[in-house]
Structures are given as C-alpha cells and as structure tokens.
Amino acid sequence: MSPDYQSVLEAIQNEVVPLRRTGAVANYIPELAKVNPDKFGMHLQTIDGQGFSVGDSGESFSIQSISKVFALAMVVSCVGEKIFDRVGVEPSGSSFNSLVQLEYEKGIPRNPLINAGAMVVCDVLIEQLQKPKKEILDFIRILANNKKICYNENVAASENKFGFRNAALANFLKSFGNIHNNVNDVLDLYFHICSIEMSCKDLAAAFLLFANHGKVISADKALLTKSQTKRLNAVMQTCGFYDEAGEFSFTVGLPGKSGVGGGIVALHPHRYAVATWGPRLNARGNSVMGMRALELLTTKLGTSIF
Amino acid sequence: MSPDYQSVLEAIQNEVVPLRRTGAVANYIPELAKVNPDKFGMHLQTIDGQGFSVGDSGESFSIQSISKVFALAMVVSCVGEKIFDRVGVEPSGSSFNSLVQLEYEKGIPRNPLINAGAMVVCDVLIEQLQKPKKEILDFIRILANNKKICYNENVAASENKFGFRNAALANFLKSFGNIHNNVNDVLDLYFHICSIEMSCKDLAAAFLLFANHGKVISADKALLTKSQTKRLNAVMQTCGFYDEAGEFSFTVGLPGKSGVGGGIVALHPHRYAVATWGPRLNARGNSVMGMRALELLTTKLGTSIF
Amino acid sequence: MSPDYQSVLEAIQNEVVPLRRTGAVANYIPELAKVNPDKFGMHLQTIDGQGFSVGDSGESFSIQSISKVFALAMVVSCVGEKIFDRVGVEPSGSSFNSLVQLEYEKGIPRNPLINAGAMVVCDVLIEQLQKPKKEILDFIRILANNKKICYNENVAASENKFGFRNAALANFLKSFGNIHNNVNDVLDLYFHICSIEMSCKDLAAAFLLFANHGKVISADKALLTKSQTKRLNAVMQTCGFYDEAGEFSFTVGLPGKSGVGGGIVALHPHRYAVATWGPRLNARGNSVMGMRALELLTTKLGTSIF
Amino acid sequence: MSPDYQSVLEAIQNEVVPLRRTGAVANYIPELAKVNPDKFGMHLQTIDGQGFSVGDSGESFSIQSISKVFALAMVVSCVGEKIFDRVGVEPSGSSFNSLVQLEYEKGIPRNPLINAGAMVVCDVLIEQLQKPKKEILDFIRILANNKKICYNENVAASENKFGFRNAALANFLKSFGNIHNNVNDVLDLYFHICSIEMSCKDLAAAFLLFANHGKVISADKALLTKSQTKRLNAVMQTCGFYDEAGEFSFTVGLPGKSGVGGGIVALHPHRYAVATWGPRLNARGNSVMGMRALELLTTKLGTSIF
C-alpha cells in the first residue's frame, strides 16, 4: 500500500513553517534578491502518476544550479559518457565556484554539477546543438510537460553583468583548453540555463525521468539508458549539494540537486521525485526549509535509498 | 524470484581473471607486500541467509581501512551521533592520508573513513571502552559470527615501525586538540584494527548489519538504529573510496568500503552484502579486480541503489 | 677605484655563450615566439654616468613583466604607499599567474610584481591618470631618456586574444571588488605595458632611478622619495622572480626583475643598474643566460648587497 | 664618520616604550609564557668592535627560531651547499609550521628557516657531528664569545611535551624520506637548540659573523666563505620572518631572523649586527617592539641594504 503522501507533506509544512525567517536570500545578483523570502512550496510526484502538493508549489522561481542536471542529462543523451573525458565524477570537497582545485587539476572540473563542470557541459552542447538555447528549453519543457517554462532574460542579464567569478572560471577553463567555443558564448548559455524559471510541480515532474530509469512518462520515450540514469543519480548523490553533499546524503539519503534560488529536487529511484522551494539559504547555499523538509520526508516515510 | 547469484559470481570470476596481473600490491609496509598478488575471492550473503562464493573467498587477508567502518559502527553504537561533533560527514576530495585539508579545517577530519577521521574514532573508543582492543575484536567476531578473527601483530608492528605519515596525522590532530588520549595509544589501537584479518565470507557476513537496518542476523540483536544504519550507509556511499568515491558510486552504485589489503565490501540495503578480494591496487589504492567485479555485479543484476 | 666593468662584461659574455641553446623561448603567445632565440646582450650603467655593453645590448625586445616595476614606481609616485592597501608586499611562493592564493586571500594579491598585483596597479593608474597609456609611456621614456620607446600593438593584441588566464585573474579580482574599473579596460592597459619594447641600454638607464635613491639622473629630478625607493628595491628583492626569488637573491644578491621576453634588470643601490637579454627561459620563466650572467657579475665583482 | 649609534638607540627606546603593552607573549608552551612581557632591550655591535646598548640588553631569553640561523651556518660550514639538495632557498609564503606546502612539494621544505627546514638541518648535523648538542653549543659560544650560553632544559622538555605540531612535521618529513635518523632524536636536538638562551649582546656579537663575511672577529677565524656568508644573508632576507619576510624587507631593509621568544637579530653587511628583545608578538609571531625598533633604526640611520 502506498503511503499517505498528502498527509506527510502537510505535516512537513507545519514543521518547517517556523524556519521561514532563518537564513538569507541569495543576493549576489540583484534580480534574485527581489523574491519574497517567506515562500514555501513542496510537490511530490510518483512514477505511477500521482501528485501531492503543499504551499506555493505551483509558483515559478529561478532554478539556478538545478539546471545543471538538465544540461548534464541532455549532453549525456547527445554524446553519451564521452562527456566524462572532460569533466570528472568526484565530489569536489570545496565550494561551488572554487578555482583552487581547477588549478591543481589542470582545468578538468571535478564534476558536472559545480559551475566549472556545467560550463564544460554548455561548451559541448554548443557544439552539438543547432540552436542550443531553444533546444535545451524544449528538452526541459518535454520533461516537465509544460510549454510555458521560460528563460528569465533579466536574471540572465544580471548574471552577465555581475558574474565576474563565473567569467573568471570560464576564462580559466579556456586557458587550459577545456572550453572550445568563445568564452562569452559559453557564459551566455550558462547564465541563460541558470535563469530558467519552474515551479515545484514542474521540477518534480521533470525529475521523474531519473526516478523512472530514463523514460519520460508523459511521452513514453526513453531519453537515457538505464545505466546512464543510474550514473546520473550517483553523480547527484555524491556531488549535488556542493560542500554539503555528504550532509544531504547523511540526513536525507536521496540523490538530488539544489539551487541558490532556493529550490531543491530529489528522487527515490522507482518511486517518486520531490521538489521543495524556500528562498532563504544556509551558509553553504542550500535552502534552509528545503533541507529540513526533505529530511523530514525520508524520516516520516521511513525509507531512503540507504 | 531471487536472481541466480551463484551463476552471476562465476561469470564475474571469468571476466576478472584477465585483470589478475594489473595493478600493484600495497608495499608501504613490508608485511603487506608478502601476500600472493594473484588471489581473487568473492562472497555474497543475502539477508535471508544464503551465501554464494567463488575463488579464494574463505582465505583471510588484511582488512586494513575496511576496519574503519567497524570502528565507526561501534562508536556510533556507544555514543550515538555525538561523534560527528569531532569528525565530519563530507567527502574529502583528496587522498586518504592528506594533511592539507586538516590544516585548513583546523583539525576536524572531513569524515570518519579517512585515516585522520578513524583516529578520532579510535580516540573516542579508548575513552568509552574498558579494553578497547578486546572489545572491538569481540564486536567484529559477533558481526561475522566467527570467533577466529584476530589481529595480525606482525602487521600492526610493521605499521607502527613504518607508519610515519600516520604518526604525522595523529600528532597533527593532537596539536588541534582533537585527540584526547596519548598519541601513541591512539596509533597503537588504529594500527591494530587495520591489521585485523578476515575472509570475504567474514566480511560479507559482518556487513549484513548495514543491509539489515542495524540488526545482527545471527544474534537477532539491534546494534544500530534504522536511522543510524541509513546514515552509516550514506557515509560509505560518499566517503568510502577516498578520492574514487564518486567513481565507485558512478560505476557500482552501492555503499561500500575498500582497504589497501585488496578487500572491498559493499551492500545493497535490504538485499545483500558482498565482499571481494584481489591484492593488486589501482593508482588510487583500490583493488583492480574488486572494482571491476562489483561493477559487473550491479550491471549483471541490473540493480543498484540508484 | 672603480672596477673594470667592460672586461668583466666581456668575460661574462664568453662564459654564457655556451648556454645559448639551453631553455625555451616563451610561446604562450605567438608574437613572442618569433624572436631570434640566440640573442644575448648586457648593459651596465653606473650612477656616475658610465655605460658598458656587450652583445645585442642595443636591440629592443618585449619587456613583459619588467614593466610591472615601472607601473609600480608610477603608482607610488602618484598615490604613495596607499597602493599597499590593495596589494601586499610578501613573496607569493607560487607561480606568477596562480589563482589559488588569490582565492584564499580574498582577492588581495600577494605583491605588485605578480600578474594579479600588477592588474590592481593598472586599475589605480586608470583612475589617477588622464591618458594612462600615453602617460605611462612618457614616464618610461623619461626614465630611459629615449623617446623612441613604444608599445608593440601586435604583442598587445596577441595577449588580448590568447590571454585567458589573465582574463580569469582580472575577473577574479573584480569578483572580490579589487578592480574598480571595467575589466577589459584594465586588461587592455596591462597587456599594453607588457608589450613595451626596450633594449638593455634603455632598461639599465631606466633602472638607475632605483640605484639613485629615486632621482632621474638625466632630468635631475626626484620621482620617488629615498624611503619609497628603498621599499621598491625590497619588493624587487623578495618578489621579483616569481617562485625563483629566493634563488636569485641567493645566487645573485641584487634586487631585480625578470620578464618572459628574456630580459632581466637588476641594480646595486648607489652603484649601478644592469640589464641582460637572452630569450631562452628556464622552467620557472627566467632567462637562462641572464640568470647566469648576473650570478657571474656579482661573483666577479665580489660585491652584492649582502 | 660613524653615526652616533648610542643616541639613535636611546631615541628608539623612547619611541617603542609606548608599544610595551601591544601584542601577546607566545603561550603555546607553558615555559615561554612565564617571561616578563614588558621587557625591552637592544644592542648594536659594529664590525670594528664597538657596542651600544639600551634597556634589558644583557638579559638572556629564549632565542627559539633564531637558533635556526646558527644551525644553518654550522651545517654549511660542515657540508657546504650540499644541504640545499634537501631543503630549498625560496620564501614559503605560509606560516612557519605549515604542513600544506610540504605535502605538495613531497617533503622538501621551502627553506632552512621554517621549522621543517630546520629539522632537516638538525638531521644532517646528527650525522655530521660526534656530539651534536655539545658541538652546536660550543659553536654558538665561540660566535658570541660567551661560555655561559646554555640550553634551557625546562623549555626543551616543555616543547617535547607539547610540541605535537612539530612532531607531526618531523614524522611527515620522515614519511617522505627526508629525515634519515630517528624522529625522536631529531626532535630532541631541534627542541634543544630552540631552547638556547642568549642576551641581545650575545646575539649581536654572534651575528657579526654574517656582517663580517664569515669571519669570527674574536677568534680571527673564517667559519664561512664570503660566498657562503652572502648566501646565508640572502636566505635570511627572503625567508627570515615567516610570512612577514616581505614586510620586514620593506620596512627595515636588512637580513635578519626573529624568534617567538621575542628576539630579532638583523645585520648590515660590512657594518654592524643588531639584536632586539620584546616578548609581545604580533599576529604573525614577530616581536612588536623589535619590528618597530629596527624600522626606526634604518630610518634614523638613513641606510639599509637597499
């Protein structure tokens, strides 16, 4: 018998509400700081098609680094595991935008879920796709079964104007020969995919791909092989939360990915995908309410992948 | 219906035999270099009590770092999660005996499965136990249901004589105040638990604890809570293979732990524990045959935790 | 009685000729690789106005990082020691273009003679000067008493096209708030001053400023105070040769500065300035013939500052 | 005409007295914390035999790291520059007891004036000398022309009891093969030479060796060649003040060495040696009063080596 997910989500919502004022909204780009910091939403979607929601689960927000998982899935569906010649699969042990490791390791990013790794992924997508921005957006729209998902051009422009650290990373990668295209083109694509806006509902729907061994449920179509899906889940498990990846594995026990827009998506293979949103972040850049909500979820359900 | 594990193990044995000459036996201590480098064994034990074996699965070898998991389980059963005040749960992103991170992070080891972390665990065990060496051995004997498991005093003495890097780590931890007992006492315990000898059969039997939500099957006794077990599995998943933790998650997809004696143990929660032994190591210190055997196992069975 | 400098220079030339084929010309930008690698020149200029030359001492070459000393002298003459709020005076212990230290030290470059430090100096010069490029060139022309000294626009353009590592550094500094102007403007000025071409004669003449307690001999004008001059010499001594600063102090014993164009300038306070040129570099980016020639100089003269 | 050194020293004393309460006495070993923190002494000794003193210049204190210069001078007098096969001459850019660089650079310390480098020097001295402790003490007694100079056994024992970081360094060096003798023997010698007690008068007298091109004035005997002396001065200049070496060059402009006992010795080649003592240290471990006193000295005399 399936658990009563709706009751569980409601209980979680009650428990995380007191955290609503804890942490700080990302403000390194002005556009992100405009969000209402008190929002909270959560949506769980099972692989047999049921959806459960609480709070602001239908409201769109900036997915930021969660987009790295979509870009990775797309590049793997295009070129397979060849991508891992240019980017590793090891946890970085450092913050998401560190240049230190990149210098010691000669321009090969530790994994595709830190900024430098996602830039290499973008570089390959530029080579592989005719119209990268359009095709990536289409890919995500199909996964989420929602044609209204869009880039936020203001956020992308804001990143472009203030994203000096990312410009440093992209130029650094280029200096090691691990960016093949023009640096500005890569940054433009990277900033755009980070600016995509989706709701918890959209994200949970889209991440069912990874819970459903690579098949899009709505389209009944395999985008990834079983083996590829398993591997992407493993990468999310070990690398999806910057220098808090161990902590998330430890307390939540599911593969997932967070973004500085306050979103977190996780999945239980063969069961469900779940997305949370709470704009205030902890010191390591992960949503305070989201981290707690997902810890409560696996505790209350009594199941994790471990 | 349960898979035909015996056939799978035999097929794996055939495929890994050609790797028998690849890699090099650990030689940083003379005692370890004495092993026959061509050995290979594998044993899989299910939670419903069945065992399957190929090769030298009954032969004992030096478990080395695999012992860190036993020490961690024991300390958690003694003091609970308080241990994580003194050692983290994040992957280190560096090699198992690096001092660099320890300096930057003021003496708090990244996780309990690198050398520095295991020394802190040993330090706590010395405080908690009356006769640490005896009690730890008893604990492992119960887990493996084998009273013949022993320390190898020659290996422990060899480590003590040549283990300057470990002595550096222990003194460094002490300088940060994260070792409370005498440095030599901590090193002595640490070197002893590394010297324990077990067979693949013993290891698979003992690791059933982690596949069986913390209960010892033979004794029908809970040593760890469900939540503790889940968390230890998560730590193994993200930290069990030094700087190859991501690679192991990626290709194998199970929580586990390796040792420089050539052993690897992994487990599929609620299903089985599996141990392999092949003394030749890859550049990162993990058994060449073992890594390949476990990759083949989850591929052939078509299941991993992801 | 003054030493017979001319004989000393000729003896040195004879000894360094056999090194003519040792080392490799800088080729990270195509324009620099076009130089004739077998050139050698040396010029020594005393503070009482005598000049001594051997080899290609009148031929102009790309001064590259030697320009950092001129930029530093100019910024100190403009804003005094306030510049040291934004850049340190400590040796870096790492290579000239490392980003690692900059990350750990939050965007404050170790000293003004590594790339990052020189970029901060350029940033201040852009704020202080009406026409930075013109005024810096005029400053150097006055020091060297040679109006023909010029930028090489091809070299500057080549740096701009291929200088991704420098672009990474400048963006990284900007991300820490230690570049106030537009990143591209700072890089443009930085690449231009590196592209300046001077001969050994020009360089020795210009560096007399530092041997002559801050007074330009030809113009009889104080550009720097005695104290400022002493301090710039100290910075050259500890930081002028990247990660070979200690070696240069050890074997030569004079303050100086090298460039990847193969030039080295050094000075003995109150006595002379001396410049060498040999395009082939050792592994640390310093001229093979130049390093040897200057070691021979202080050995043969029997005097260094130590 | 020689400057009026006595008046200069008295003026300096007046200016540094107000700093008497600034900074903190070294307390990492209990014995050092027992000193009266308000002491100040200064002694300048010229190569033509004159001595000038103010304050507590005749009182002995723990020379600590200043002893590294004596050990280095002695090893160079024994084995010449062969010592530099096992230790570098580059500034470290990090603190005196960092293990980070040692790990990256495979056990070759950056220079002989950081702890790790001095331990390698001690290791060589153990091999070279019959009775290392006695002979080193004799060497220093001859340099200072004072037979009463002694080890402080309490300080050495205190270091031995609490010096875990140094024990970590020594074991780490041993693990790289850059300690040949027993680790404890090397540490014992190292702790002993650090425990030597000398006054400002003793230190200035002893350092005349380096101002006097390697000749002991009292004994009219050459212990070092001119070239060796020049090189040791260069090493002091670039490496004598941990991560404040650049600052000391910049503000004082003389080669020298500091110790956490609050002593600093510096020298002007061919002119004088000067020692200061003030137990309170700045954040980088150098005497607050001493740094200021020496800056005032070269400012008031209007001369430095630059």
Description:
- 4 copies of one chain form a homotetramer.
- Chain A starts with a helix and ends in a 5-residue tail after the last helix.
- Chain A is globular, with a radius of gyration of 18 Å.
- Chain A has 2 domains: 166 residues, 3-Layer(aba) Sandwich (Beta-lactamase); 129 residues, DD-peptidase/beta-lactamase superfamily (Beta-lactamase, 3-Layer(aba) Sandwich), CATH 3.40.710.
- With 306 residues, chain A is an alpha+beta fold.
- Chain A is built from 12 helices and 11 strands.
- In chain A, the strands form 4 sheets. A 5-stranded antiparallel sheet of chain A has the order 3-2-10-9-8.
- Helices cover 45% and strands 12% of the residues of chain A.
- At the A-B interface, helix 10 and helix 11 of A face helix 10 and helix 11 of B.
Mind sketching the topology for me?
Four copies of one chain form a homotetramer.
Chain A: H1 5-16, E1 24-25, E2 41-46, E3 51-55, E4 61-62, H2 67-79, H3 100-104, H4 115-128, H5 132-144, H6 153-162, H7 164-175, H8 183-194, E5 197-198, H9 200-211, E6 215-216, E7 221-222, H10 226-239, H11 245-251, E8 256-258, E9 263-268, E10 272-277, E11 280-281, H12 288-301
Antiparallel strand pairs in A: 1-11, 2-3, 2-10, 4-5, 6-7, 8-9, 9-10
